[in-house]
Amino acid sequence: MNGTGKAMRGTIDGFAGRRVVVIGDLILDEYLFGKPVRISREAPVLILRFAERQVFLGGAANASHNAHALGARVTPIGAVGRDGAGEELLALFRAAGISTDGIVTESGRTTPMKTRIMAGGYQATRQQVVRLDREPAGEPQPTTEDALLERLTALGTRVDAIVVSDYGYGTVTPRIFEHLKTLAHRANAVVSVDSRYQIPRFTGVTAATPNEAELEQLTGMPADDERTVEKAGRQLLERLDARLLLVTRGSRGMALLERDGATTFIPIHGTDEIADVTGAGDTVISTFTLALASGATPLQAATLANVAGGLVVMKRGTATVLPSELRQAITLHDS
Q1: What is the per-residue pLDDT across 164-204, written as a single tens digit (0 to 9) for each?
Q2: Pick the residue with more confidence: 314 or 50?
Q3: Active site amino acids
Q4: Does residue 59 contact residue 22 with C-beta atoms inside 8 Å?
């Protein structure tokens, strides 16, 4: 392992009490579980007998939950609709002990919700059959943007890190992004970005965390081996004027590119026989950002994020990783 296990365990200890703002698109992840019983007579589709329903914090809400689970003092900032999904999101935050002071409720807005239909017997592995997305029609209203800016000003002045979690629903407008960069500069805070569709507009940040497919799309270059990942990554790093780029590569681990330093390829932690990749990117950016804010070197932070990502994909549903799990994994890796 690169870096000493002792130093990384010290970094994990430093997570406690770090002040982190997570701003972005708050999503409710819904899972509907059913047991296959027969093929329908109406159409050639499987009939599932409903078994249970579970809901989880998703998107920026999951990034918040991950940072909170690691010990940080987290403030999520975002918008929900005045609807059932919005109410469930707020209830999940409260149940987890996460402040909802930064969340704005907008009448007439649909709270993003991703519904996954899962099929399988009670002893068998449950497979995702289909996903149904409910999405807002457009960006938040101007009055909501104003309210989000007020929350950001009030809650983001004394922070160690700001995570931008952009899933394409328009929460982090250009005005909001420029304001958060100003606040981060004053506080000397780490700013990291995970953006599904618009990463080029988030310039001048500490770090960005695209995956290989996003890297290819953004640069128009292949990124399917170490040489091409480095070439495309360097181009994107320059374009973003960022200090660090952490490229997630699925079963091939991660690549860390430092603006003023080396490119390091980190092999996957654990096994590639994964249970569920849902929300793994949220775990990665939360761990990476929190480690940087706790004084870790970029490589130590990337290594911890890689371990956390390897742990979380072994869990079903949108999940988190605890400091104790990270410490144990680091100790085992070191031994």
Answers
A1: 999 999 999 999 999 999 999 999 999 999 998 899 999 99
A2: 50
A3: 282
A4: no
pLDDT digits (tens, 9 = 90+) for 8-23: 888 898 999 899 999 9
**Which is the CATH superfamily of the domain at 5-28+56-112+136-334?**
Ribokinase (3.40.1190.20)
Kindly list the domain boundaries of the chain, sorted by start residue: 5-28+56-112+136-334
pLDDT tens, position by position, 45-56: 999 999 999 999
What pLDDT score does 243 carry?
96
Residue 126 CA to residue 18 CA, distance in Å, equals 37
The total of other beta-carbon atoms located within 10 Å of residue 160's CB is 22
Evaluate if residue 160 carries a pLDDT over 90: yes
Please tell me the distance from the alpha carbon of residue 282 to that of residue 188, in angstroms, as a whole number.
Answer: 23
User: What are the pLDDT digits (tens) for 51-97?
Assistant: 999 999 999 999 999 999 999 999 999 999 999 999 999 999 999 99
| CB-CB contact of 56 with 66 (8 Å) | no
| Measured distance CA(167)–CA(159) in Å, rounded | 23
